[in-house]
Write a structure and sequence with these properties.
Length: 381
């Protein structure tokens, strides 16, 4: 009868695990009074199985007995059985890790697109310095569509409920200052663009977006050579090349998790553009090819005791102990890096009013299917 009862209990636990999406794997660790084999949820097994030495050191340093280890593991598994009381998944580590890695891939596609929204001039060529001085400088704001659905999945798995109502597609912005100078003798012009922002050093902005902090730096330059120099009511056509470097990071710090994401992108661009001036209007169209190397790295430190359990739960203390000893990982990380080619088509219209120049442009990345847009206001002559 006792054997049947034990078998029934084991079978019932198996069904409970299966119903919750939880499968456990054995892991042998060492307490102060000997070795013990415990069941680790499949969701975290790969993260902890390679860190047995670190876990054993933590257990020995904290003088943890095998009975305490067994109890903590039992509480972790119990938390997983009841996990959907708090978060919409029974595999929070897996969902968070996959979601952040997928978001890094999306971000790696968006950053090169955002770079080429900078320093867009309606005229395919602004003219030479001699005769006449041709120069422009001002502010440019660009946006590119960014899919954040995978980031939302990761945030929900980390217990961040505030993201539920956020749209799956947001915009990745850039705000830069730029300048362009006409060429000397030969029909070319040169443009430069740059911007640096650190919200942690901007008190009012820092408070407005707390607990998020953003650090962003971008620098770019390009040169265009006029195949057709054009003129009033005659089209201009140029070919050119440019280089852009962007580096930045986003940090989030709240009660349950601390997360950091760092990105770096280097892009070389070749382009062609045609424009025509019709009184004060300058419509234009063109194409680009971007050759970009982008890397994105992320790291999360999470208090899973607060995410998958609450202090009133019978298993809360066990989960907290498992975190302290490394049986549950408190931190995990990932990255995305690679070289890609992005073909783009772009176009728009400029408004030239004496010394004031307004340009509105849009582009579409054919490979990544990412739409982007920009608007600039400049003093030009």
């Amino acid at each position: 009868m006792v054997k049947k009862t034990k078998r029934f209990a084991a079978l019932a636990m198996t069904f409970a695990f299966a119903a919750s999406g939880l499968f456990a794997k054995p892991l042998t660790v060492k307490g102060v009074d000997g070795e013990v084999t415990i069941d680790i949820p499949d969701d975290v097994y790969n993260m902890v199985s390679g860190k047995v030495d670190e876990i054993n050191n933590a257990l020995l340093e904290n003088e943890v007995k095998t009975s305490q280890i067994t109890n903590a593991a039992k509480m972790v598994n119990e938390a997983y059985v009841n996990i959907k009381n708090y978060i919409p998944t029974d595999s929070p580590f897996t969902v968070a890790e996959n979601g952040l890695n997928d978001f890094c891939d999306d971000l790696a596609d968006v950053i090169p697109n955002s770079q080429t929204q900078q320093n867009v001039y309606a005229e395919a060529w602004i003219g030479k310095i001699f005769p006449g001085f041709h120069f422009g400088a001002g502010v440019n704001a660009g946006v590119s569509a960014l899919d954040v659905s995978t980031l939302k999945d990761a945030a929900l798995a980390l217990g961040v409920d505030d993201v539920k109502d956020i749209n799956d597609t947001l915009v990745f912005p850039t705000i830069t200052v730029d300048a362009r100078l006409g060429g000397i003798i030969l029909p070319f012009d040169i443009g430069v663009t740059a911007m640096s922002i650190d919200t942690s050093k901007m008190d009012s902005v820092d408070k407005a977006i707390d607990p998020v902090a953003i650090d962003f730096f971008t620098l770019g330059a390009d040169i265009r050579y006029a195949i057709f120099q054009g003129g009033f009511m005659r089209p201009k056509w140029s070919v050119g090349a440019g280089f852009y470097y962007t580096k930045g990071g986003v940090d989030v710090d709240d009660d349950t998790a601390k997360a950091s994401l760092d990105f770096k992108s280097t892009t070389f661009m070749v382009n062609t553009q045609a424009s025509i001036k019709l009184l004060c209007l300058v419509p234009f169209i063109g194409g680009r090819a971007l050759f970009s190397k982008t890397s994105v790295d992320w790291k999360v430190n999470a208090d899973w005791a607060k995410i998958i359990a609450k202090e009133g739960d019978t298993y809360y203390d066990g989960v907290a102990d498992a975190l302290k000893w490394g049986i549950l990982p408190s931190s995990f990380s990932g990255s995305s890096s690679g070289f890609s080619v992005y073909p783009q088509v772009f176009g728009g219209i400029g408004l030239d009013l004496l010394f004031l120049n307004l340009t509105v442009s849009g582009s579409y990345d054919i490979a990544s299917k990412i739409p982007s847009a920009a608007v600039s206001v400049r003093v030009a002559w």
